[in-house]
Amino acid sequence: MSLSDPIADMLTRIRNAQQAKHELCVIPGSKIKKSILDLLKEEGFVDEIQTVKNGSFDDFQVKLKYDTNKKPVIRMIERVSTPGRRVYIQSSEIRPFRNNIGTMIISTSKGVMTGKRARKLRVGGEVLCKVF
């Protein structure tokens, strides 16, 4: 099975697992997915990420985070730039998302980072996704 957009697949797996109240979510591995997951962990949206061997490939096992009422911490996670419609943003156009509690994940020339960090470093790039 070939996926045209592996990042959208990863976000959908997280969304579906949270809707089904699963504790863990398994995602096929890649470098860009690892960097996005690391940012999600750093920003407090997921608990932990483990690398699991799947034959000769690596998968990521993500422990999802819920609040005290068993509601998912991630209320919304959406893909912005797609293979058919790339969305780029300049550093001066990066604005706080959802009153600064949301996070924009951007792929820049200096690596994958949050919108806040990209604005601070004055670099623009491709908007991968928005998380709230």
TrEMBL record:
One short Pfam family name for this protein?
Ribosomal_S8
A GO BP annotation: translation
Keyword hit for RNA-binding = yes
**What's the domain of life for this entry?**
Bacteria
**Keyword annotations:** Ribonucleoprotein, Ribosomal protein, RNA-binding, rRNA-binding
Q: Which GO terms describe its molecular function?
A: rRNA binding; structural constituent of ribosome
According to its record, what are the GO cellular component terms?
A: cytoplasm; ribonucleoprotein complex; ribosome
Q: Which PROSITE patterns match?
A: RIBOSOMAL_S8
* HAMAP family noted in UniProt: Ribosomal_uS8_B
Q: What does this protein do?
A: One of the primary rRNA binding proteins, it binds directly to 16S rRNA central domain where it helps coordinate assembly of the platform of the 30S subunit.
Membership in a protein family = Belongs to the universal ribosomal protein uS8 family.
Describe the protein's quaternary organization and the partners it interacts with.
Part of the 30S ribosomal subunit. Contacts proteins S5 and S12.
Protein name as it appears in the record: Small ribosomal subunit protein uS8
The gene from which this protein is expressed is rpsH
